[in-house]
Amino acid sequence: MTGDAAPGAGSGPFILCLDGPAYEAAMDGLVVWVHDLLLPVYAREITTNAPWCPRWWEHHEAVALLYGLWMSWQEHTAAAAGMSGPALWHRDFLHPCMAALRDPSGTFAGCRRGSHRATSPPPADPYPG
To answer: Does residue 28 form part of some domain?
Structure first.
């Protein structure tokens, strides 16, 4: 992960392109949003059909998806988004993202019953080019 610009609320490069203080600043904002808004309002109960990892920040895929969700939430809840902004956010961003994260074979598939299991990427042969 590389980058040099620390994002402000709702701005800046994609979180997985950041490192050091910029990454930490982006994560600080994301953690507040996930813990104070997303989980209390939208997370629902953990089941085998809807897993959630209490250490979600250790899953790069989850960080990427949740960061995108947070950025779109900021955009679609701003006054410039108009009256239908929040409805569009729910339909176009929240539901697909939460379905991907909480799918039984998705991001948190190995994290059952509220426990964390570290994952490894699949092997990949070297590119011949």
So the answer is: yes
